[in-house]
Design goal:
Blueprint (H helix, E strand, L loop, with lengths): L3 E3 L9 H13 L7 H7 L4 H9 L7 H13 L2 H4 L4 H12 L4 E4 L4 H11 L7 E3 L12 H10 L7 E4 L2 H9 L3 E5 L11 E2 L4 H7 L4
Parallel strand pairs: 1-2, 1-4, 2-3, 4-5, 5-6
Amino acid sequence: MKGVVFDFDGVLGDSEGISWDAWAYVLGDHGLHVTRDDIVACTGTRSSTTYEHFAEKADLPPYESVLQAVDQHRRSRYPTDLHGFPDAVNAVQALAMVGVPLGVASSSSRSNLDVKMGVLGLTRYFDVSVAGDEVERGKPAPDLYLVAIEQMGIDAAPSVAVEDTKVGADSAAAAGLRTVIVNRMSLDTGLHPTVSEVDPDLLLLWLGLL
């Protein structure tokens, strides 16, 4: 059996800007300025990895304290400021309509992922979602995708992963999935194929269903 596994942030939901605003707000209290290089280095990774990145630059409070402040700031904005990318939402709906198994493999925590998927009304379309705090290793390790395909009951090789970062695509490819990047933030994509938008017909073609 084959299916499609989506990243969430930057693929399904336009949440990266909200998240980085939250990190900048909290880290600013500790004399840190979030740069483009920081965003490139950390986008697609778990919050713990982002914290470690900045903890090398300044003496920060414990991770749990920083994360609580970041989460409080970004969650307050999700109900009003979080929007889905129309191309990806349309693709999810089209694929679900023809019975393609769908999953999410996100670096977000379970609590944040559930809120974001609920705000966008996407939960009902997905058979499985796996969050970053539910696996031992975050992206670019393959753990998130390995758990997703196991829970979905699909085979990796004929299935497709949709990512927006090289670190995420590396994770999916390491799990054996055919991987494509929708490059919304003009980040380095490495050697992974890229598209400008998520096209359900292209995904169906790759799955051999069109």
